Amino acid sequence: MLADKLRKSPLLVAYFSQEDCQVCKVLKPKVEYLVDSFKGIEFLYIDIKTYPAISGQYLVFSIPTIIIFVSGKEHTRFSRHFSMDDLNALLEKLHDLVFGE
């Protein structure tokens, strides 16, 4: 699942969460909306209970965790407490670098 997306997406935001995390439920639509505001950035939701192997492979031990991949490689990780402003600023910068806009 994630491996296929990483091969195809130059810029991908992976959101690691689980269904019973209340903070994650509130944050997910905000992150999705932010990512959708940038053309070309892909968003992928990964439930750590459904896909424990992927969570283990990427050493996700707390939720919510956001991993930003550029050209298939991990670039930045946000975990537990982070600012939407910081995430927006980073996505803006990476979008400009990757897509040249």
Second-tier CATH architecture? 3-Layer(aba) Sandwich
CATH fold-level topology: Glutaredoxin
User: Span between N and C termini?
Assistant: 29 Å
Mean pLDDT: 94
Structural class: alpha+beta
Helix coverage percent of residues? 40-55%
Assembly of the depicted chains: single chain
- The CATH homologous superfamily: Glutaredoxin
Q: How is the largest sheet built, in terms of strand order? A: 2-1-3-4
Overall strand count:
4
Strand count, sense and barrel status of the largest sheet are: 4 strands, mixed
Rough outline? globular
Proportion of strand residues: 25-35%
What can you see in these coordinates?
Strands 2-1-3-4 form a four-stranded mixed β-sheet, sandwiched between helices. It is an alpha+beta fold. The chain has helices at residues 2-8, 22-36, 52-57, 84-99; strands at residues 11-17, 42-47, 65-70, 73-79. It is 44% helix and 26% strand. The radius of gyration is 13 Å and the shape is globular. It has a single domain, classed as Glutaredoxin, CATH 3.40.30.10. The model has no long low-confidence stretch (mean pLDDT 94). A hairpin with a 2-residue loop joins strand 3 and strand 4. It contains four helices and four strands, in the order H-E-H-E-H-E-E-H.
